[in-house]
Write a structure and sequence with these properties.
Elements: E1 2-4, E2 20-22, H1 25-34, H2 36-56, E3 60-69, H3 90-97, H4 100-110, H5 114-120, E4 121-124, E5 131-138, H6 141-193, H7 198-226, E6 233-237, E7 245-247, H8 250-275, H9 282-289, E8 293-297, E9 299-302, E10 305-308, H10 310-323, E11 328-333, H11 340-351, E12 356-360, H12 366-377, H13 382-389, H14 405-412, E13 443-444, E14 447-448, E15 453-456, E16 459-464, E17 474-478, H15 487-492, E18 496-503, H16 508-520, E19 527-532
Parallel strand pairs: 8-19, 11-17, 11-18, 12-16, 12-17, 18-19
Antiparallel strand pairs: 1-2, 3-5, 3-6, 3-7, 4-5, 9-10, 13-14, 15-16
Helix pairs in contact: 1-2, 2-8, 4-6, 6-7, 9-16, 10-11, 11-12
Length: 536
């Protein structure tokens, strides 16, 4: 799977052609990782929703009872056929088990709304068998066990009552038929008794014999119906408290809520990333700017305080020093971020090599710059101090070089405790001249050090506004965010610019807009520096 990057400004200043880049699994995982707070927040909301559901909805206990359904036949010993479900329609039996009459009896016994009881009662029918499994859910085990046993027994009572009603109807029908045949038999018997001729008597006797056979068949059929066993089945497994189990698998709700929230967070992370693209890597910054990379500044933790890796800052300072020649005016520009920490670190790294660096700022951040420079100066390696100690003092032109024993004796001579023209006189009336006590600035390498100057290594760093640094050789301008202040781009026209990109914070759209503004103003930036957001 590949995606085509949008055309960007290459180093030559013209838009480049889009290049295909393979999207790997790491690229897909990078978005949720960078939006970890969003994913964690969504997962926490899902977990809270699951816990709230479990707290608001009372726990359910499930109890079950099994009923074996028996087909009601006239001859219990007659085979019912190859398939048992042909003898009894289990779909009809399931409908009767969850019918209104069973639910009403259960509501009258345990109490409660019939609608809630119907929702809590469930009847399962295994395929190809004559078994009904009654399942009932209730807030406590006792209620669940009682209700499911009553449901099974209510089904059997309802089914038995239905069979008994059918048998009673059939017996009543047989009794009516037998009564009619008996009445007919009596009438024929009286006619036969009153017959005068042989032919009439024979006909009456023959008719009476047929009626007697019919009456015998009716009595036999009624006897079979009366002997039918109307028992619809038996409860083969009753519910017990020890067999009741918690319904719903409550821990699964917690896991489902957590995973569901995390999945929703990942989807939201991709949706947010699609509308708010940030610089995630060097490739993203290079594609957005089309500029060469001057270096990357990583971040490390030191005693709980995040700060930049000093070696990375020195490498970036070397790259900038290679591309500029004094007098140089370098503006450190960022889209919406504050480059103060990087400006101070670069000033320390450049001055440690012997340069006189002037840090300019017109946005009220001079004190922050000074504090950052003093903090970074304390982390300079010992090599810089050693290099400063062996730098010879510049010799004034025309001064003879002293060699030999005189030089050795001069070097070993201790200074006089009395300043020149201040030696004590033997004249008691002579006037004693004392030296004036003043606040003269300190000197370093024959040059006076001002009050706004910080000595760093074998160089120095001075602070002030942009206009005050007009006569300095190397000026670093700590530009305000370019999206809200145009002074950084305007000052970069007088020199050059370094684009500061903060990883995971700088938006790609803002970065492209900044580079386009610089090029439209006629500025050719040196390159970009990729930093880690939040350091300093």
């Amino acid at each position: 799977m590949t995606d085509t990057t949008s055309g960007s400004w290459p180093a030559g200043g013209t838009p480049g052609d889009g290049s295909a880049r393979t999207v790997t699994l790491t690229d897909l995982l990078r978005v949720p990782l960078h939006r970890a707070r969003l994913v964690a927040g969504a997962a926490a909301l899902g977990l809270l929703a699951a816990l709230g559901y479990l707290m608001l909805v009372p726990p359910q206990v499930t109890a079950s009872a099994v009923v074996a359904v028996r087909p009601v036949v006239t001859d219990a010993f007659t085979p019912s056929g190859a398939a048992a479900d042909r003898a009894v329609n289990m779909n009809v039996e399931s409908g009767i088990a969850t019918g209104t009459e069973v639910v009403q009896r259960l509501a009258d016994s345990v109490g409660g709304d019939p609608r809630d009881i119907r929702a809590a009662l469930e009847v399962e029918v295994p395929t190809g068998g004559q078994i009904l499994r009654f399942v009932y859910q209730a807030p406590d085990a006792d209620r669940a066990v009682q209700a499911v046993n009553l449901a099974a027994q209510a089904y059997l009572d309802v089914r038995r009552a239905m069979y008994e009603k059918q048998r009673a109807e059939m017996l009543r029908s047989y009794d009516e038929s037998i009564a009619k045949v008996v009445a007919q038999q009596g009438a024929v018997q009286r006619r036969a008794n009153s017959a005068r001729g042989t032919a009439a008597a024979d006909a009456a006797v023959a008719e009476l014999a047929g009626i007697n056979n019919q009456l015998t068949q009716l009595n036999a059929a009624r006897t079979e119906i009366a002997a039918v066993d109307v028992n619809p089945g038996w409860v083969t497994q009753t519910a017990e408290r020890a067999l009741a189990s918690s319904a719903g698998h409550r821990p699964l709700f917690v896991i489902a809520g957590l995973l569901g929230g995390a999945l929703l967070g990942v989807v939201l992370a991709y949706a947010w990333e699609s509308v708010d693209r940030r610089v995630r890597s060097v490739r993203d910054a290079r594609d957005a700017t089309g500029l060469p990379m001057l270096g990357t500044v990583r971040r490390q933790r030191f005693r709980g305080r995040r700060r930049a890796v000093d070696a990375d800052v020195r490498y970036v300072a070397m790259a900038i020093a290679e591309r500029v020649r004094q007098p140089a005016r370098v503006a450190l520009l960022a889209a919406r971020e504050d480059p103060t920490a990087l400006t101070a670190s670069l000033a320390v790294a450049l001055s440690a090599e012997g340069r006189e660096v002037y840090v300019a700022d017109d946005h009220g951040r001079v004190e922050r710059l000074r504090d950052a420079v003093l903090a970074d100066r304390g982390r300079l390696p010992a090599v810089a101090d050693a290099a400063r100690s062996i730098v010879p003092k510049p010799r004034v032109a025309g001064t003879p070089v002293v060699t030999g024993p005189a030089a050795e004796s001069g070097a070993a001579r201790r200074p006089s405790p009395h300043p020149p023209a201040a030696r004590p006189s033997s004249d008691p009336d002579a006037t004693l001249t004392l030296p004036r006590v003043g606040s003269a600035p300190a000197a370093r390498n024959g040059r006076l050090i001002g009050a706004d100057e910080v000595t760093v290594g074998i160089g120095s760093v001075r602070f002030g506004s942009w206009h005050q640094g007009a006569d300095h050789g190397l000026v670093l301008y700590n530009a305000p965010p370019a999206e809200s202040d145009e002074r950084g781009v305007a000052i970069a026209r007088q020199g050059t610019a370094v684009v500061v990109v903060e990883r995971d914070r700088t938006r790609q759209g803002d970065l492209r807009r900044l580079v386009e503004r610089l090029r439209a103003a006629g500025v050719s930036p040196l390159g970009f520096v990729l930093t880690r957001s939040g350091w300093g």
